[in-house]
Specification:
The structure holds two protein chains of two kinds. By secondary structure, chain A is an alpha/beta fold. In chain A, 28% of the residues lie in helices and 24% in strands. The mean pLDDT of chain B is 94.
Chain lengths: 425, 321
């Protein structure tokens, strides 16, 4: 239950405080007052705790920042899922129902989230009306309504001239453009990575070129227009290489990847498991390795949950007919930790892609533990292992290929704006 | 991951794919097929192996021919056969595939014969039956998307064994649209396991799946090199809609490059047999002169198909010869 009292003074005692932004990692107490962090390791003068949280054995990390969570339907359940996953800031893509192509819709989403939750919800507006790829949406008004960027959702508009115009227009309004790179015609009928596996299973293929051509096209147009572009859910080794090249050339380009793609690859499709249908599709083992390294080196700035709550009616169907996506926001932390573990990264580095680096892509102050900052905190037990079960998930979407898998690291409590918004029962 | 068509002891309980079947399992099916061939020649064309059992033909994609052969096979085994043309039935009214399956289970089905336009649809049904504790119901894949058509693959193997005596040293060419062909995939897996010496797929790059070499086949762009010294030539059906998908310029050009004519077949061995899963496009992938010649074994394939489907049903039901 939420306490609607942000004048509370909370001492979070004896936790291992990790601030990825400053690479701080020490067992100290954190003091929260008036919704902000009032002290780290040192009690501010005159501080009197109303509440003490014993964080012995827990990591005290910044509230997580998730750059892609489709929370617009069943918003109450999804925001509860967010805090249960330690997420206190999230961006919601426009391809939800209704499509976020009108300022009122974006505004309503932001306002509703503010009313029911302390989670900061940042909509990504639609780049074109109805995401049809034909007419521009009201990009400037969407920004005024709270959108942090605009996007075409999955893929590019089929008409490159529309893309060009959208980038020009967004640049002139100083609105960033988020692109999930996929060439329209090369990806529209495909369902699986173009490989021996898809050939064997007889699944229509999406070549890696669908991603790289889209990136090259957008990069060329970004250079010409000065648009600020963020590539979301890059899925291939070649895509990571292109992003690295663009960033090395000094272009204002950022990128992220889906947290599930740190672990899953095409072989996980197994015998046509519809839960493994994703867009972009799970790619090869080499792609997964490149994504893991790309995230570690910082080419990819963030790991995102790509949270897509879906019902059984659209998932318990043949693979090709299954809606792409899976519930994910409650798995973002353990999946990121497992990646860090696999690469033997210290926790303070493993957490970068879901905290300060993700916030930097958004261009906001979040994902940090610093005196004076908003007290968004995620307290988790790094040792706790748990087996993912439908009944444990708060999201309305219960389906993920990680069901039945044992993951390590579990959120114990989440604070947003200095309030305890989640406590593990 | 366990092959879902096998039980914990490795016995075949469903037929989903020719991939994953051992040489012994394939051989047993071929031998059982041989034992059923005689049944069709009897005056009373029936054996009582599936008496009292209900076989549901679930065809989500239209196919009169395959459905009929399954129907005949089940009837010759004395089963009750229920044909459901799903493309005009409940799914058209919005019922999901698994709802349909649940309903039919409640009608005490013993076996489902499933054809579906999506690769993996029969696997979904098997998975659902397992989750709901009804693994005693057998599922036969009668063609799923581009993935598999295992009874066709098996009847092709039977045909090859019948005419060629075995698989050792055999060179087999599959010609044409491999990309969309579930028959090609089923044939390739079975041929590989049964020990064919050389399996070639022949066609333009647009119709050859990516990295198909990983299945143990040679890719030939050129028909003459693909047919060279072949013992068995399998032509595949070319759908007319491939032209509109920019996969081919025209049926005429396809016929010019890959159509089977007596002239082109000179590259193969003189005693090479010609097969086709049907229905044929005469004048496109195969000339009438070839299709109607003695080397074509296309009609015997159909006859063997019924015995093969009897064999599959009886082996799955545990009453195999």
């Amino acid at each position: 239950m939420m306490t609607n009292n942000n004048t509370q003074h909370i001492e979070i005692r004896s936790g291992r405080v990790i601030d990825p932004a400053s690479q701080f990692d020490e067992a100290v107490s954190v003091f929260v007052a008036d919704g902000k962090i009032a002290g780290i390791g040192q009690m501010p003068a005159g501080f009197k705790a109303d509440q003490v949280i014993d964080a012995t054995g827990l990591v005290v990390a910044p509230g997580l920042v998730d750059l892609s969570a489709r929370i617009a339907s069943n918003i109450d359940a999804e925001l509860e899922a967010a805090v249960a996953g330690g997420v206190t800031t999230l961006a919601c893509p426009p391809d939800v129902d209704p499509i976020l192509d009108e300022p009122e819709l974006a505004e309503r989403l932001v306002r509703y989230a503010e009313d029911v939750s302390q989670v900061r919800v940042l909509p990504v507006g639609a780049m074109t009306q109805g995401l049809s790829g034909a007419m521009l949406a009201e990009i400037s008004l969407l920004r005024d309504a709270g959108c942090i960027a605009v996007s075409q959702g999955r893929g590019l508009p089929s008409d490159t001239r529309v893309l060009w115009r959208a980038l020009q227009y967004a640049a002139s309004c100083d609105v960033p453009v988020w692109i999930q790179p996929a060439e329209y015609h090369l990806s529209k009928d495909g369902i699986a990575h173009d490989s021996a596996l898809a050939s064997r299973l007889g699944l229509a293929a999406i070549p890696v070129a669908a991603e790289t051509l889209a990136m090259q096209k957008v990069l060329a147009l970004a250079k010409a227009t000065g648009a600020r572009v963020h590539f979301t859910q890059i899925s291939s080794a070649e895509g990571v290489a292109l992003l690295r090249e663009a960033r090395d050339a000094g272009l204002p380009i950022t990128g992220d990847m889906a947290a599930h793609a740190l672990h899953l690859y095409e072989q996980d499709i197994g015998y046509f498991d519809p839960l493994t249908r994703f867009d972009p599709p799970l790619r090869g083992y080499g792609d997964r390795e490149a994504l893991r390294l790309g995230l570690a080196e910082g080419t990819l700035g963030a790991a995102v949950s790509a949270h897509t709550p879906l019902g059984v009616d659209v998932k318990r169907v043949p693979f090709a007919e299954a809606a792409p996506g899976a519930t994910g926001i409650e798995l973002l932390l353990p999946l990121t930790l497992a990646w860090g573990e696999a690469l033997s990264l210290p926790l303070r580095r493993s957490l970068l892609p879901v905290t300060s680096q993700a916030a930097a892509i958004l261009g906001i102050k979040a994902g940090e533990i610093a005196v004076g900052q908003c007290a968004d905190l995620c307290l988790f037990d790094p040792q706790a292992s748990w087996t993912v079960q439908e009944s444990d998930l708060r999201s309305a979407g219960k389906l993920t290929p990680f069901l039945g898998r044992t993951l390590q690291g579990r959120v114990v409590a989440t604070l947003a704006g200095g309030q305890t918004v989640y406590q593990r029962p | 991951m366990l092959d879902p068509q096998l039980d914990a002891d490795g016995n075949l309980v469903h037929l989903l794919s020719t991939e994953g079947l051992s040489r012994e399992q394939l051989t047993r099916l071929l031998d059982t097929c041989a034992s059923f061939l005689g049944v069709s020649d009897r005056e009373v064309k029936k054996v009582p192996l599936l008496r009292g059992k209900s076989v549901f033909n679930l065809f989500f994609e239209n196919s009169t021919r395959t459905r009929t052969t399954f129907e005949i096979a089940a009837k010759r085994l004395s089963a009750d056969v229920i044909n459901l043309n799903m493309s005009t039935s409940s799914t058209a009214k919005g019922e999901t595939l698994l709802d349909t399956v649940d309903n039919l289970c409640a009608m005490h089905a013993d076996m489902f014969v499933v054809r579906h336009e999506s690769s993996g649809a029969p696997h979904l049904i098997v998975d659902h039956l397992r989750r709901t504790g009804r693994s005693d119901i057998h599922v036969i894949n009668a063609g799923d998307g581009r993935h598999g058509h295992p009874t066709q693959g098996l009847l092709d193997m039977y045909t090859i064994r019948h005419y060629k005596g075995g698989f050792e040293g055999l060179k087999v060419a599959l010609i044409g649209d491999i990309l969309h062909s579930r028959v090609a995939r089923s044939d390739i897996h079975a041929l590989k396991t049964l020990g064919a010496e050389s399996i070639r797929v022949v066609g333009p790059q647009t119709l050859i799946p990516t990295d198909i070499e990983s299945l143990g086949v040679e890719v030939h762009r050129d028909l003459d090199s693909g047919l060279k010294d072949c013992d068995v030539v399998i032509a595949l059906r070319l759908q007319r809609e491939r032209m509109s998908g920019a996969l081919l310029p025209s049926a005429t050009e396809f016929h010019d490059r890959y159509g089977l004519t007596h002239e082109r077949l000179k590259a193969a061995k003189p005693d090479a047999i010609v097969m086709h899963p049907g229905p044929m496009n005469r004048g496109v992938e195969i000339d009438s002169a070839v299709a109607d010649s003695p080397r074509a074994v296309i009609l015997p394939q159909v006859t063997f198909g019924i015995a093969m489907r009897m064999a599959v049903m009886s082996v799955l039901a545990g009453g195999g010869a």
